[in-house]
Amino acid sequence: MVDGGIVVQVTDGDTVVLDSGVVVRMIGTQAPKLPLGRDGFPTWPLAPEAKTALEALALHKPVRLGYGGEELDRYDRALAHVFVAGESGAVWAQLAMVEQGLARVYSFPDNRKCLDQLLVAEGRARAAKLGIWGNPYYSVRAADRPDEVLDRAGHYELVEGRVLQADQAGGRVYLNFGRFWKEDFTAVIEAPALRIFTAAGMDPLALEGALVRVRGWVDDRDGPRIEVTHPEQIEVLATR
């Protein structure tokens, strides 16, 4: 944990600027996005509310930064957990935003610390339909409705369903959620990700028959699919 300085600007619901000029991307979460000067980029529902909430929490306050993996992204933003000084102790900004339903868990294979706590908080907010979880834009998608998942290609989504078949071929694992792999939803785990699963003591082939929730970016490659790069993208809801 290191001193970060004072937050002088909140860019959106998951990014702050410090008095040193350092831009901090709050790792482990994704808040609704604002255009931020990008032509044609839509404002996601509740993006202004997320920014306002983070301003209320952190603006003009001292923070400490905690790193749990890669420390800089390709835009030279610091990748850190942000702890805001308060009268009753430090407030973990990521957790506070997730608890309010104004951010969701969003992780990377090289930055996976503290995700278990964030996932629990997200689950509670989702069950209570707080913030984004009361808006259909952020609904958990059903794996057995592949056309609806495909409509969200290019978006970060949560997709829930039962793994019909788990199979390994060509150095990768396919989790198939339907009988027609060229049409149905599939989660794909490439070889580098499989090494992370092995290091974590997890066998994705054991997920056959399990009810799971998969999170990630949806693409269209032989039907809707999500590439899984690390274990935390898959939540096991029931084994059979």
Please summarize what this structure is.
With 240 residues, the protein is α+β, with helices and mostly antiparallel strands. Helices cover 19% and strands 34% of the residues. The protein folds into two domains: 2-134, Beta Barrel (OB fold (Dihydrolipoamide Acetyltransferase, E2P)), CATH 2.40.50.90; 140-238, Nucleic acid-binding proteins (OB fold (Dihydrolipoamide Acetyltransferase, E2P)), CATH 2.40.50.140.
Structure description:
This is Nuclease (SNase domain protein). InterPro entries: SNase_OB-fold_sf, Staphylococal_nuclease_OB-fold. One of its GO terms (molecular function) is hydrolase activity. The chain has 240 residues and is α+β, with helices and mostly antiparallel strands. It folds into two domains: 133 residues, OB fold (Dihydrolipoamide Acetyltransferase, E2P) (Beta Barrel); 99 residues, Nucleic acid-binding proteins (OB fold (Dihydrolipoamide Acetyltransferase, E2P), Beta Barrel), CATH 2.40.50. The protein is built from five helices and 16 strands. The strands form three sheets. Strands 9, 10, 11, 12, 13, 14, 15 and 16 form an eight-stranded mixed sheet that branches. A five-stranded mixed beta barrel has the order 1-2-3-6-5. A hairpin with a 6-residue loop joins strand 6 and strand 7. Helix 2 runs parallel beside helix 3. The longest helix has 13 residues.
Which key terms come to mind for this protein?
240 residues; alpha+beta; OB fold (Dihydrolipoamide Acetyltransferase, E2P); 2 domains; eight-stranded mixed beta sheet; five-stranded mixed beta barrel; 5 helices; 16 strands; globular
